[in-house]
Each structure stands twice: as structure tokens, then as C-alpha cells.
Specification:
Helices cover 28% and strands 20% of the residues. By secondary structure, the chain is of the alpha+beta class. The longest helix has 50 residues, at 2-51. It is globular. The termini are far apart.
Length: 285
Amino acid sequence: MKKRSGWKIIFVLSIIGCLCCAGFFGWYVYQTYQVQKEYQELQEEMNTAKETAVEPAEEQPTLEEIENAEFTGEQEGEEAEISESFFVDMENPINFEELQAINTDIYAWIRIPDTKIDYPIAQRAGDDSFYLSHDMYQEPRFAGCIYTEDCNSKDFMDPNTVIYGHNMKNQSMFQNLHLFADPDFFKSHPDVYIYTPEGVLKYTVFAAYTYDDRHIMNSFDFNDPAVFQQYLDEVFSVRAMDANIREDVSVTADDHIITMSTCVGGQTQSRYLVQAVLTRSENDG
């Protein structure tokens, strides 16, 4: 009798466990649907703004579908003061008035052609971890938001601006950074665009590789040209199997770079980095 009673208890506990799992899965699916719907609505608003804008002198890259899903894995920010010589001559389709009406923390937008990376960038003063678990509407979400920390200014004029995003199982957010592990994709996709209220910045990807999980901005004094140059030299000397380096691109301590960082599935102490250098105009010294 005791044996039979024990099996009954195990059976009941198993049923309860299954119901809990089903409930959690249902809640997760609902969360995923809500986030995806929000980004799709935002995409439609940005496309409407683009359609009503003046036609550009050059062909303007289109924004791609934005998705969301489960992830695998000391100066204060300042207002933008970007040198006009860095802006490229192309239409800016992003309506920042609408975005900042949604969330005043949003200050830029990042897009990489032929990927799903096409998102607003936010920065939360005094709370660097906020957008790890909150979306652009400041609502709690697994996928978070693409963001920078307030150790970086908002003008992208720091020597190195680190941009974070989760590694999503449905290939959204910053998961598509892993596409740069393919040498052919790396070679054929050098461009990254960052839209700001003042204009459009164009970057050239020069490195993509797996790194450790150290906090980059706290580990190197990039304001010291000697330290920054040594760091760049080390990047260009990376020879790991999954590393891709664009040897024909010159990057020095006088440049401004972005480091896009995401997780590596199954490697909690690793990060995948894609780095790009800001394009300088012919008139910029």
C-alpha cells in the first residue's frame, strides 16, 4: 500500500510539474508575441516617416523586419556633439521625435544591411543593466533592448563605443552578429549605419571574433592614445579560428570605433564582438 501511495504522489507531482511548465511556456510565448508586435508597429511608423521624407540623392537602404525571441545566453552620457564632417550624404528615415516620445532614453538607431539588426539604441542614466531586461517601451522583457552604458557618451565620438544586445534564438536582436563568423559574409558586408537626430554615420567592419566576458570599457583606458593603439594592434593580431580581420582597413588611435557585443551560446564566459570604424570624410583631418 505504501508503495502504491508513493507512486501516486510522484504521479501527482509530475502532473503539477507539467502544468507549471505549460503555464510558463504559454506566458513566454505571449511575451514573445507582444514584443514582436511592438517592434513591428514601430517598424511601420518608421516606414511611414520614410515615405513622407524628401527623396535622397543616393539610394537609401531600407529597414528590415524586426523580430524578437528568447535569448541564449565612468563618465556620464552626454548629448550628441558629432562633427558634421562625419555624416554621410543619405536620407535619415528615422523619426526621432516619435521615438523619444515613446522613450527619452532612445538616442540612435543601428542598422546592418542584410541582417535583422535594425533597432533603436537606448541608454539609461545611472542604471546600466536596465535594458538587459527591459524593451524600448521600458517594459520588462526577456529580449531587452539594444543599448550602451553611460560610461559612453551619446555622440559616438568616444574612441570606443560599446553597444550591447542579446543573442536571440530566432536570430533577432544581436544574434545576427554571428553571421560575421562566416568569412564570405564578413568580406561582403563591411557597412554598419547608425542614425542619429543630426544625421547618418557610416562604419566599416574591421574585426569579428570571440572574446572573454570582461567589461571592455572598465578594462582599458581608451582615452589614452597609447593604450588605445595597443588595444587595436592586439585586435589586428587575433588569429583565432573563428576570427575575421579586414587587413586592408587602417584603424588608429585617432579614429572612433564601435564594438558590438553579444553572448555566445553555451559559453557563458565568452562574448562575440564585431568592431567597426567610423568613416571619415575627405575634408576631415
